[in-house]
Amino acid sequence: MQTPKDPKKAPQKKKKKRLLKIVSVLVVFLILLVVILIPVLISSGKGREIILAKINDSIDGKTDFASLSMGWWKGIKVKDVSFNDSSGRTSVAVKQISTKPHYSSILFGSMSLGETIIDEPKVEINLKAQRPKETEQPERKTTTGKKSAPIVLPVNKVDLVVKDGNLKVTAPQTGTVEIAQINSKVNLRPPGERTDFDLAMIVAKQGKTSKISTEGQVKPGADKGWTFKGTSGDLTVKVDDLELGSLQPLLTWAGVEIEAEGKVSADIKSEIKDGKLENLSADIKAEKLDITGPFLKGDRLKTSTLDVQAKLERQQKMIQIENLEITSDWLTARATGMVPATFDSFSEFLQSDSNLSGNFDLDVARVFSQMPKNFSVKEGMKVTSGKLSGAVSTSAKAGKRKVTGNANLEGLKGTVDGKTIALEQPITAEVEITAKKDKIVFDKMDLASSFGNIDCSGTSELLNYTADADLSALQAQLGQFFDMGKYQFAGQAVENGTITMQKGQITAVGTSTIKNLGITSKDGASISEPQVDIGFDVGYDRKNRIVGINSLNTTASFGRVDINDAVVPLDTKTDKKVEMTVSAKVDLQKTKPYAVMFTSFPKEMQLAGFAESEVSIIAEQQGYRVVTDATDIDNLKVNYPGEKPFEANEVSIAFDAAVNPEQKTVNLRQLELISPQIKIHKGEFSQVSTAGKTKLRGRVDCEYDWAAVSTITGPYLPQGLKLEGQRKDTISFDSEYPTDQKDKLLENLNTKAKVGFTKAEYMGLNLGTTEVDFQIQNGLLKIAPFSTTVNNGQLKFAGEANLKDKPSLLKTTEPIQIAKDIQINKEMARKLLMYVNPIFANIVDVNGVTNFNCERLAIPLEKVNKNEIEVIGTISGDKIRLEGSDLLVKVLSLVGGNVRGQDCIMHPTRFVLQNGLLKYEDMQLDVGDNPVNFKGVIGLDKRLDMIVTLPYTMSGRTVRIGDKAGDRISLPLGGTTDKPELDLGKLLQDQAIKGVELLLDKLFE
Length: 1005
Description:
With about 1000 residues, the protein is mainly β. Among the domains are: about 40-130 and about 150-170, no CATH class; about 355-485, no CATH class. Helix content is about 15%, strand content about 60%. The chain is built from 12 helices and 53 strands. Strand 3 (about 75-85) and strand 4 (about 90-100) form a beta hairpin. The longest helix is centred in the N-terminal third of the chain and has 35 residues, at about 10-45. The protein starts with 8 loop residues before the first helix and ends with a helix.
């Protein structure tokens, strides 16, 4: 039975379809409306305002344009475009920019602009308005080891035309250069398609103009991208009378540190196929060339003329040189014939009928005179003559083709300090190469000189060589002309080895021996080695550019150092990492000469013990990781004159460090040192250099015995200082300073620590238990007030030093009584008090107490002139008993006084020590009941210029304490504190005058 249809449902379906059609039409209409309105909106004044606002908000400057019009078919046009940066350096004006982009390309992820015309662009750059910037070292970019991707341009296609462009650059010291009439056409296409370009311009400066033009076509490989490899094309460059000096403002703007003068013309045509040079034709002429810059280390490369003629053509694996000539003031070179394009094609070259002829002559005297720094010519040396010449040619002999070549350095002469010097005999090199089936045979490959020889023979698969050198003769001959460094070498070196070349692998195996090796430095340090033996087995993978060190073993009198199974990749893009293990067994006593010469190890210090170490070096993403957990020293002994020897049966060291030589960073993640007397439980250290700044940070948790540390640090502590006591301290520090100014490290140092000891001895001062808190903040050292016992008395001190000052002075901040009731002993008198009063010099015995109130104290922290020391204060002494004072004995013996031990009192005396001279007006020393007064100057160099007033009058009366001075006898005191000299002639003169006066008085009574 059928269900009857509902007559109401049919109209409802029709309504829905209708509604759907209406909505679809509306959507299409709205889309069309939006599409139609977009150009209208962009071309309107409001659109202009929105676009300019967006641009100006995102740049440092101001951009403007008169109008912008957009049409889906007409493209985009922008008129009267201008830009001015906020610094006033750069201004840009463009008459019109028009382009016809393919809008649909945006939907597919690429930009195709079609024909784009830039009409009359004008750019002005004024470097005079550039704000000075601090010199910074650019941050070095680190390599990640990943292969670099091909360059991908954001624009896929564009037909770019520049009409009548102009660039003007003004630099402060090099003037203004204008590049005018810039006209270019570039039809940029994606890789795999051909891109054509054509560029012409005129360079003008100070009325002189030159024309530069270039044109060509390139077709990068579709799978290579925009890289040289896989690219084919041709290039033509023409330059007419270009004044290199006119480019200086451009070079300054680009940040290129080079200065060049001279006129250059060039016509160069080349063809490239799959990244390889196919054809080259070049005609380059230059006049009055003068080039300098930091890369030449301040030297100047000059020639009045330069003429280069070249015409080359690639023929499969060979390159045909139709003509190659180079002529300048100091070089002539010519070559014609066929040469192999690669080393692998050398065998084919020898088996073919190819001919090759070439020669060169280099005036080394002119080159060395122009570039003495680059060739390390000795300062004051004038090279007067010398020629480096050579030739290469091919010939046929017994059905075989032979290549012969030679080079000679001869006639090398010069003058220094008016003395004529010359190379004893020429240095010559000769080579003879033939072919044998698929092998290259080196019949001869020799280097000969008066100081050494190298002889090689063999094949391209197996090459045997021997070499010998007299190191002393080498320096005697070449050292006449060149700076060979601060070391003098002697000894006989001999090396024998084989070099094998198979399947892209080069391996060198051999031994080197140096007998009677002697090394002497200018400061007198020397090394003497009876024999040094080096064995090596090293390979090089040419394809992957990886050096493999199978073994490198060095044996000498001090022990043995080995490197085995090491990998060193030379290509930074490879996934292979540096891996190396260095193991060593050395006698520390025999390494001391090396430590003295090449480090700051003190030559007075004695070192003994046996060290065994294994250090691993592994490449990381940024730099290297250097690790050891197996460095041990047995029976270590360190001895320094005047210090108790340091001895440790076992010392173990472990560390884990990250080192980045490129960025000059060191990160010591872990440091542990264990010995009976010194322990570092946890050490951390980091040094990071970036943007011209170096940040230093470290922390050490340590335990140590001062007696042991004093021996090791003896050369760096005041002579005679002895410290005792067990310590457990944590020391942390940080500093940030300019990378190229390491002397600024201390000036920017921050640290806070506590230093102390149980006992200390220095110049007769015996200190008890002492704790000193100090901190350094941004180079300002502050020592907190502290007190301690000294010779049964008391010592107080507080001070500060600004490490930025030169010299840095440790100063008291306010008057302070530094010494109170300190007992005087013989050592203290002989080493300290003798500079206060010469009676304390050369004494047999002394005791008593002294006090010192300091008004000002300033002591240099560095080892500088003693004249920098400044002390102002008041010193006094009580209950002083002197035994055997040379000066006091002389004073008392003049008038028959008691010369045995004397009890003395030193009255409070204010003195000033400045400029190396200690001065005071009156120091009264009560010797028993008699006063002896001193005044004058005592030099820190021990010289005396003083007056001593004796306790006696000219009439022979003895003066007691409290008596009126009357006419007491005064004598000049000279000599030195070690040998004081009283001027007795003055005493006799005064007595004679007094006698005459008495006689006259009696005559006229």
